[in-house]
Design brief:
Elements: H1 2-13, H2 18-28, H3 32-48, H4 52-62, E1 67-71, E2 74-77, H5 78-95, E3 103-107, H6 112-123, E4 127-130, H7 137-147, E5 151-155, H8 159-171, E6 175-179, E7 189-190, H9 191-197, E8 216-221, E9 231-235, H10 236-243, H11 245-249, E10 257-259, H12 266-278, E11 282-284, H13 293-299, E12 304-308, H14 309-317, E13 331-335, H15 339-349, E14 353-358, E15 367-368, E16 376-377, E17 387-390, E18 392-393, E19 398-399, E20 416-421, H16 435-440, E21 442-444, E22 452-462, E23 467-473, E24 478-480, E25 483-485, H17 487-494, E26 500-508, E27 517-524, H18 532-542, E28 551-554, H19 569-574, E29 585-589, E30 594-597, H20 600-608
Catalytic activity: a very long-chain fatty acid + ATP + CoA = a very long-chain fatty acyl-CoA + AMP + diphosphate; a long-chain fatty acid + ATP + CoA = a long-chain fatty acyl-CoA + AMP + diphosphate; tetracosanoate + ATP + CoA = tetracosanoyl-CoA + AMP + diphosphate
EC number: 6.2.1.3
Family: Belongs to the ATP-dependent AMP-binding enzyme family.
């Protein structure tokens, strides 16, 4: 009964604006003392616009000397973080370029300064646009324009990327700071110098008195795997609901959490804000390292780790060591873990509780698995937050509708598109300054005239026990020989072949053929060559004919985002033409029961139809 209640609470908390989330908690809890405490907290939030910054400032007073951030060999306490963020805030104010309500773009990787900058901005009533440190040129300017930022702060190592767009920044009258002691470039100022000269005195609360729970706290961008990134508005209320994932998953005030994901992404930022809610230290790493992961956990006495599926797979792919279970990690929180990796991870690294969650930065629906069974458990949430898994036309890339024009739910076990109703309790704010992309995520007249649903873009299936499983992303699934092919499932199978390290699966157009033929760009395990015969036998054994990749491309590395999502746009555009691609290419040769080299002559025969695929 306790677990059932917990799941219902968690699912709702991750959806609601903070005050409503706590009111819902009050409604559910029957114990008088708990209910009274929560009611007082709700009233405090609503009356004073109590934000995650207010929680941080309370911790500065109550536990000033407790470690807040571990980074390399440095330790920053809650008091030191407060002092440094005060200096950031005053540096901005004294520069005269930032006023209350402004947005400042932060262009840097994982380092403590990222946290001081964001806290400092909130202290003066501003928001941070959290730019992906890997974007350049057109994407960089696009993201700046989306946020409406008037100031840019960039890491010293990203100076070349800034110089590339500097004339455009000056045209738009954007103030540019670099995180260096000095800067010789005209139109670029040193921020560190200004910080060093600034006072560390506390920032008057009056400077942020205009903030409410619905004011912008940050802008977080989608990964841009299928086009330019889109900016999601993160309000102070949303920050709270993101932060509640940690306590909902069982994190307590004695834990130490390890964050290797980019702070510019919601999955990385929520660890930071969630740690503030819990009052615990964060071990911050500039970049994920599979070889250093467990050494870091031992060094800092980490008890909670955060993951995305690829991180878990990378860890399982490292050479086994006698020390694999020698650590204090008890809890792993994240999303996207495959069933086979889940099993391998627990078997190899010990009985670590895995808390898989589902949600999107801009979405209005979230789930958390508190049980030991793989998947995401769906309870009867529809009375609060209606959702459905509906039939989807892969070719037309739109939901299937019946003769009345309404959508149809799939049967149990059948993959379909997850949609969630947009309501006052479960709003979809949309993408900043991008009405077209916002409207694309909305579905009208789904089950009745006038209703409105959020299109998650995720194809999922629900089993007989009401557990939900990820199937594929819309746009990644393609149709071949009259069948739908889920790229994620094919990639999982390919990765089990002995010589294959990673696989990026997608569909390519072939002249004269309906749909798209499967193609896989793969990397090979260290020291191994592409064993074409073995790979053919593997796909023949484990994949139906229509799902077997017709073409194989061997790459040194796969293009990925900062959160390890595979980028498919480029490889899809390049197709399978050996005249344009220098990587080794192979063709599924069913006559020879092998993947044979895709030469220009073979390519011409495929295009002309002489070779049937």
């Amino acid at each position: 009964h306790g677990m059932l209640s917990t799941f219902g609470i968690v699912s709702v908390l991750l959806l609601l604006p903070a005050p409503y989330a706590f009111l819902y908690l009050c409604f559910l809890f029957s114990r008088t003392t708990v209910r009274q405490t929560l009611r007082r907290f709700v009233l405090k939030c609503m009356r004073t616009n109590y934000s995650i910054l207010d929680r941080f400032l309370e911790l500065v007073e109550t536990q000033p000397h407790k470690p807040f951030v571990y980074f390399k060999d440095e330790t920053f306490t809650y008091r030191e973080a407060d002092v440094l963020s005060n200096k950031v805030a005053r540096a901005f104010l004294q520069a005269g370029c930032v006023k209350e309500g402004d947005t400042v773009a932060l262009f840097l990787g994982n380092q403590p300064m990222f946290l001081w900058l964001w806290l400092g901005l909130v202290k003066i009533g501003c928001a941070g646009a959290l730019l992906n440190s890997n974007i350049r040129s057109k994407s960089l300017l696009h993201c700046l324009n989306c946020s409406g930022a008037t100031t840019l702060v960039a890491a010293e190592e990203l100076l070349d990327a800034v110089k590339e767009v500097l004339p455009h920044l000056h045209e738009q009258q954007i103030t540019v700071f670099i995180l260096a002691d000095r800067c010789e470039i005209t139109g670029v100022e040193s921020f560190i110098d200004k910080m060093n000269q600034a006072s560390s005195e506390p920032i008057p609360k009056e400077l942020r008195s205009h903030l409410t729970m619905q004011s912008p706290a940050a802008y977080i961008y989608t990964s841009g795997t299928t086009g330019l990134p889109k900016a999601a508005l993160i309000t102070h209320s949303r920050v709270w609901t993101m932060s509640l994932l940690l306590p909902s998953s069982g994190v307590n005030s004695k834990d130490v959490i390890y964050d290797t994901l980019p702070l510019y992404h919601s999955t990385g930022l929520l660890v930071f804000t969630g740690a503030i809610e819990r009052g615990i230290p964060v071990v911050l790493r500039s970049k994920f390292s599979a070889s250093q992961f467990w050494d870091d956990c031992r060094k800092y006495n980490v008890t909670v780790i955060q993951y995305i599926g690829e991180i878990m797979r990378y860890l399982c792919n490292t050479p086994q060591k006698l020390s694999d279970k020698n650590h204090k990690v008890r809890l792993a929180i994240g999303n996207g873990i495959r069933a086979d990796v889940w099993r391998d991870f627990v078997r190899r690294f010990g009985e670590i509780q895995i808390r898989e969650f589902y949600g999107a930065t801009e979405g209005n629906f979230a789930l958390l698995n508190y049980s030991s069974k793989m998947g995401l458990l769906l309870l009867n949430l529809q009375m609060f937050f209606p959702y459905a898994v509906i039939k989807y036309d892969i070719d037309k890339e739109e939901p299937l509708r019946d003769s009345s024009g309404f959508c149809m739910e799939v049967d149990k076990g059948e993959p379909g598109l997850l949609v969630t109703e947009i309501t006052a309790k479960a709003p979809f704010i949309g993408y900043v300054r991008d009405l077209n992309q916002t409207e694309k995520k909305k579905l009208h007249n789904v089950f009745k005239k006038g209703d409105l649903y959020f299109n998650t873009g995720d194809l999922l299936r629900i089993d007989e026990d009401n557990f939900m499983y990820f199937h594929d992303r819309v746009g990644d699934t393609f149709r071949w020989k009259g069948e739908n092919v889920a790229t994620a499932e094919v990639a999982d199978i390919l990765a089990l072949a002995d010589c294959v390290k990673e696989a990026n699966v997608y569909g390519v157009k072939v002249p004269g053929q309906e749909g798209r033929a499967g193609m896989a760009a793969v990397t090979l395990r260290d020291g191994l060559k592409f064993d074409s015969t073995a790979v053919f036998k593997h796909v023949e054994d484990f994949l139906p004919s229509y799902a077997r990749p017709r073409f194989m491309r061997i790459q040194r590395s796969l293009d990925i985002t900062g959160t390890f999502k595979l980028i498919k746009t480029k490889v899809v555009e390049q197709g399978f033409n050996p005249n344009d691609i220098t990587d080794p290419l192979y063709f599924l040769n069913e006559k020879e029961k092998n993947y044979t080299p895709l030469t220009p002559d073979v390519f011409d025969s495929v295009i002309s139809g002489d070779i049937k695929i």
